[in-house]
Write a structure and sequence with these properties.
Blueprint: E1 2-7, E2 10-13, E3 18-26, E4 31-37, E5 44-50, E6 55-58, E7 66-71, E8 76-81, E9 90-97, E10 107-110, E11 114-119
Parallel strand pairs: 2-11
Antiparallel strand pairs: 1-3, 3-8, 4-5, 4-9, 5-6, 7-8, 9-10, 9-11
């Protein structure tokens, strides 16, 4: 079992940057992902990183703006968000899974979520 805790969300203006953190404890899983869910919308994939093979992936909507990286010693995963847009407003979730996958159904553990609000 892995436990995840997100932090770093907040209210920012369009064009600003924000860094989200995910602290993991317990059993280590090979893939860590970031997902987000806006009001009235389904939860969508944002980014992932696989510690076993060193792979990363990003949704088309955030490519070139977001960066994902990890600190294996501290067991933490980060999502660096740049050039934020109002459409990035959502609750962001950290998740842990066993394989590279953009589908949220393949992740076993989830954090509580952190709110990111981007104003015009």
């Amino acid at each position: 079992q892995v436990q995840l805790v997100e932090s770093g969300g907040g209210l920012v203006q369009a064009g600003a940057s924000l860094r989200l953190s995910c602290a993991a404890s317990g059993s280590r899983r090979p893939t860590m992902g970031w997902f987000r869910q806006a009001p009235g919308k389904e939860r969508e994939f944002v980014s992932l990183i696989n510690w076993s093979v060193g792979r990363t992936d990003f949704a088309d909507s955030v490519k070139g703006r977001f960066t994902i990286f990890s600190d294996n010693i501290k067991n933490k995963v980060y999502l660096e968000m740049n050039s934020l847009k109002p459409e990035d407003t959502a609750v962001y979730y950290c998740a842990a899974g066993g394989s590279l996958n953009r589908d949220a159904r393949f992740y076993d553990s989830w954090g509580q979520g952190t709110q990111v609000t981007v104003s015009s």
